[in-house]
Automatic annotation (TrEMBL):
InterPro entries: DUF7962, Glutathione-S-Trfase_C-like, Glutathione-S-Trfase_C_sf, Glutathione_S-Trfase_N, Thioredoxin-like_sf
Region (Disordered): 248-267
The protein's name in its UniProt record: GST C-terminal domain-containing protein
Highest taxon of source: Eukaryota
Boundaries of every GST C-terminal domain copy: 97-248
Organism of provenance: Trichoderma ghanense
Ranges of compositional bias, category Acidic residues: 254-266
PROSITE patterns in UniProt: GST_CTER
Length: 340
């Protein structure tokens, strides 16, 4: 059976989307893309039956994967004929996971956002702060960003120092001493790559190739490797929302439902009285948590929750989310609200 096609919903300046774009390029995996606006609404995503507001969204056939923390492992398990980017040893896999948690969960990216210069054109649009306020679950403003900047600079400087004096201290090209950039590099480099590419975000007196030569050289090598990989890969075809939805709805499943089980010993399953086929609501626990997706529970284990939802055309698709960073609750269909 032919492998289902990949469609990536994203926008170019999204630092999270770059993680998946880089992975696809470095692995040499072909895909199509459906480009999205930087702010809501995103009707192309909504027509898939999805309320999730974060980018990127990755479709592989009729299976739709939320969150780069799930997307990258799923892609890593696919295409065995292509060299993988992840490590095969438990020790190095642990480093990959810890780097992911350090950049995403410890607040490095949130601090990085506070360093965006408030004179950037999109930050002068009041819709941006309203949109990102919904995203963050708190009121945002240019004044608030300016007040938070000193502390954020300190946190980001500490992150640069960590990479300079530990992982890259011995002059290695890539974090795990690989011959080319690996998954560990993707997990770590993206926030540094993004910030150094935003003019005015980092003050030159504190951040420069002279002060952090190994970090800046690493970022440069990584970008060169990605650029070279993209030249070898066929340019992704750009689909509009209707074309992307029709491609997904007409595809096969990437994962077979058979074997999908609900772990009866999972604490959330026990507490909520969940079972296969019951209605549940899933949502992130950090950003975008007000946007909940409701569907029939297909699978739930320690790594992943899968629900079945209907597209605008009434076709079934399955939405996959990682357990880490996501809340799963039984949905009360009569009241139309989840127990949260």
């Amino acid at each position: 059976m032919a492998r289902p096609e990949i469609v990536l919903y994203h926008y170019g300046i999204s630092p999270f989307a770059r993680r998946t774009v880089w992975y696809l390029a470095l692995r040499g995996i072909p895909y199509s893309q459906c480009l999205q606006p930087g702010m809501l609404p995103r009707p192309d995503v909504a027509r898939l039956g999805i309320s999730y507001r974060r980018i990127p969204v990755l479709s592989i056939g009729k299976d739709i994967y939320l969150d780069t923390r799930l997307q990258l492992p799923k892609l890593e398990a696919m295409y065995p004929e292509l060299p993988r980017l992840g490590s095969s040893t438990p020790e190095q896999q642990g480093i990959e996971r810890l780097l992911s948690a350090y950049i995403i969960d410890s607040g490095i990216f949130q601090h990085a956002v506070k360093l965006l210069p408030t004179d950037l054109p999109f930050l002068k649009d009041p819709r941006y702060f309203k949109d990102r306020g919904d995203f963050m679950g708190t009121e945002l403003s240019a004044e608030g960003m300016n007040k938070a900047r000193p502390e954020a600079l300190g946190e980001i400087a500490a992150a640069f120092e960590l990479m300079e004096t530990t992982f890259l201290a011995d002059g290695r090209e890539w974090i795990l001493k690989t011959e080319r950039p690996g998954l560990a590099d993707i997990e770590a480099v993206w926030a540094f790559h993004w910030l150094t590419g935003v003019p005015g975000a980092l003050p030159a007196e504190r951040f420069s190739a002279e002060k952090f030569p190994r970090v800046y050289a690493w970022i440069k090598r990584f970008q060169e490797a990605v650029t070279s990989a993209k030249k070898r890969l066929e340019k992704p075809k750009t689909l509009n929302g209707e074309e992307a939805a029709k491609m997904i709805e007409g595809s096969s499943w990437n994962e077979e439902e058979e074997g999908g089980t609900v772990d009866g010993d999972d604490p959330v399953v026990v507490a909520e009285g969940l079972g296969k086929g019951c209605l549940v609501a899933i949502s992130p626990t950090d950003t975008g948590r007000a946007h909940k997706d409701v569907g029939k529970l297909v699978r739930l284990d320690k790594d992943e929750v899968v629900i079945e939802v209907k597209t605008a055309e009434g076709e079934s698709v399955r939405v996959h989310a990682p357990r880490h960073g996501y809340k799963v609750r039984r949905f009360d269909g009569e009241k139309g609200v989840a127990k949260l």
